[in-house]
Amino acid sequence: MRTLIKGGTIVNADATTSADVLVDGERIALIGSDLDVEADRTIDASGKWVIPGAIDVHTHMELPFGGTFAKDTFETGTRAAAFGGTTTIIDFAVQAKGQSLREGLDAWHAKAEGKACVDYGFHMIMSDVTDDTLAEMDTLVDEGVTDFKLFTAYPGVFYSDDGAIFRAMQQTARNGGLILMHAENGMAIDVVAAQNVDAGNTDPYYHGTSRSPVMEGEATNRVIRLAQVAGVPVYIVHLSAIDALNEVRRARDEGLPAYAETCPQYLFLTLEDMGNGFEGAKFVCSPPLRPAEHAGELWKGLAKDDLQVVSTDHCPFDFHGQKELGKGDFRKVPNGLPGVEDRVNLLHSGGVVDGYLTPNRWVEVISAAPARMFGLEGRKGVVGIGADADLVVYDPTAKHTISAKSHHMDVDYSCYEGREVTGRADIVLSRGKVIVDGDEWLGAAGDGRFLKRAPTGDLLSRT
Ligand code: DUC
Ligand code: ZN
Ligand code: ZN
Question: Does residue 263 have its Cβ closer than 6 Å to ligand 1?
Fold first, then answer.
C-alpha cells in the first residue's frame, strides 16, 4: 500500500518545508516537491500541516489506584490518543510491593497485547528495591523497558526512601537506562493531609493545599542531588511548580543531566478549579493543580528548554462511582486526570496560537524530544525518510469545543469541558495505515506493537 500526502507543509522540530510525502508500507519512502509517483491513495494536505505522530511518554491505562482502576484500557485509551494526534504512548507498568519486576511487566504486556491501537512502550514503576529487583533492572533494559520510575510520594504504596532511590540510580548508571522521579515530599504531605482532615477540611480543594509547591521543590532538588552523586541522568515527571522548575534550571545551569516534563493540566488549570465542593474531585491529581502564577512560569520554561517534554499523566477515573470514593475524605479520591486525547490540541492552541511556542517547538515537546529521550529516535518523532509512517495531517485553523459528550476517552467528564481549541488532527496514520479520518475510526485493537526501546542514559549524560 502506497499513500501520497500532497501539498502539505511538513513541520518537524528542526525545520518547516513545503513538500509531498510518499508512504510505502509502514515507512516514509520519499519526501520532495511535487512528487510524481504512483500511489494507491492520495491525501490532499493543502493548507494543512504534516507532523510526526505525537508521543505521550506518560500514561496509566488501567492503573490500580485507591481501590479502583484507571478507566481507559489500552484499547479505549490508545483509540482516544489517536483521535487527538498521538500515535505512540509509553505507559507505566507497575511492580507492586512484594512482586518481581517481571511479574509487573508481564501483567502490563497482557493488558496491552491485542488491545492497543497504536504503538506502545513501557516504563517500569519500582515500588520495592531489593537485590533481586536491582538485578532485574538490567534484564528489563535489554528487553527495551529502559526507564524506571520511583516515588518520593505515596508512603506505603509507591514510596521509596532515599537509600532505595539511590541504589536504583546507581544500578541505572551502570545499565544505561534512565531514572524517572515523582518528586514530592510524601511523608510531610501525609502529615498535613491528616491535619486537614482532622480539622474538618475534607473537600478535594484541601488535596491541593496539603501538597505545598515547596515540598515539590525540596524533593526535586533532593532527587537531582542523589542522581548527581550516583552519576546518572534524571527526568522529573509531571513537574507542576515554580519551586521545582527553579531546581531543574539550577541543575541544568550547573551542567547536570537533569530533565523534566510538565503536563497540560499544570499549564491550563489552577488550584481554583479544585474548589466548588466535591466537584473539585474531577481535578484531583498529584502533584496538584497550582495557583495561577505557576503556569506562566512553566510556559516560559517550555519555550526556553528548561522543560523538554509535555506528556499527560493520563489516568482517568469517572466522577460518578470512582472519584466519589473520596466523598468526605479527599485522601480517598483516586488521583489522576484524563488527557491523552487533548494534549496536542491544547498545546497547539495555548502554545502556538497564543504565542508561547513556535510550531517547531510544539513538535519538539510533543513528539521529537520524547522520541529522542526515550529511545525511539529515527523511528518516531520525525517526518523523515525511513521513519515509521506515523503521521498527522493537522489543520491548524480548525476550531472545536472540548467536551465529554464528544471525546473518545472512556471517562464521564472532561477537565476542559466547554473550552474552545484551535487545531485538530484531520487524518492520522499509524505505520502507514490511516486510522483516523475526520470523525471516522479506521483503526483496530491489536494493531499497535510493543516498542523495544534503546537505552538513552549515555546520550542524556552528555550535557
Ligand atoms: N499522579 C496521579 O495523579 N495519578 C497517578 C499517579 C501519579 O503520580
Ligand atoms: Zn507520578
Ligand atoms: Zn503518572
Answer: no
Q: Has residue 463 got a pLDDT over 80?
A: no
Dump pLDDT digits (tens) for 3-43: 999 999 999 999 999 999 999 999 999 999 999 999 999 99
**pTM of the predicted model as reported, rounded to 2 decimal places:** 0.98
Nearest residue to 296 (alpha-carbon basis) of 232, 343, 354, 247: 354
Reduced to 3 states, what is the DSSP secondary structure of residue 73? coil
Which residue puts its alpha carbon closest to atom 7 of ligand 1?
A: 286
Instruction: Show the domains of the chain with their CATH numbers.
Output: 52-377+452-462 (3.20.20.140)
Nearest CA to ligand 1 atom 1: 286
In short, whether 58's Cβ falls inside 6 Å of ligand 1 is no
Q: Is the model's pLDDT at 100 over the cut of 80?
A: yes
Closest residue by Cα to residue 428 from 19, 88, 30: 88
Residue 237 alpha carbon, nearest atom of ligand 1: 8
Q: Is-cis flag, bond preceding 287, omega within 30?
A: yes
Question: Are residues 313 and 264 in contact, defined by beta-carbon separation less than 8 angstroms?
Answer: no
322 lines ligand 1 (CB under 6 A): no
Q: Containing H/E element for 148?
A: strand 147-151
φ, ψ for residue 46 (rounded to 5)? -65, 135
The CA-atom distances, in angstroms, between 378 and each of 322, 371, 417 are: 40, 8, 36
457 CB under 6 A from ligand 1?
Answer: no
Torsion angle of C-alpha atoms 325, 158, 268, 213, degrees rounded to 10: 110
Structure confidence at residue 462 (pLDDT): 84
CA 436–ligand 2 middle distance (angstroms): 30
As given in the structure block, the three cell numbers for residue 170 are 546507581
> pLDDT tens across 374-430, in order?
999 999 999 999 999 999 999 999 999 999 999 999 999 999 999 999 999 999 999
Residues 6+ apart with CB under 8 A from 219: 152, 153, 181, 183, 184, 185, 244
Note whether 75 and 418 are within 8 A (CB).
Answer: no
* Average pLDDT in the chain: 98
Nearest to 78 by CA among 121, 115, 122, 123: 115
Strands 234-236 and 178-182: parallel
Q: Is the CB of 182 under 6 A from ligand 1?
A: yes
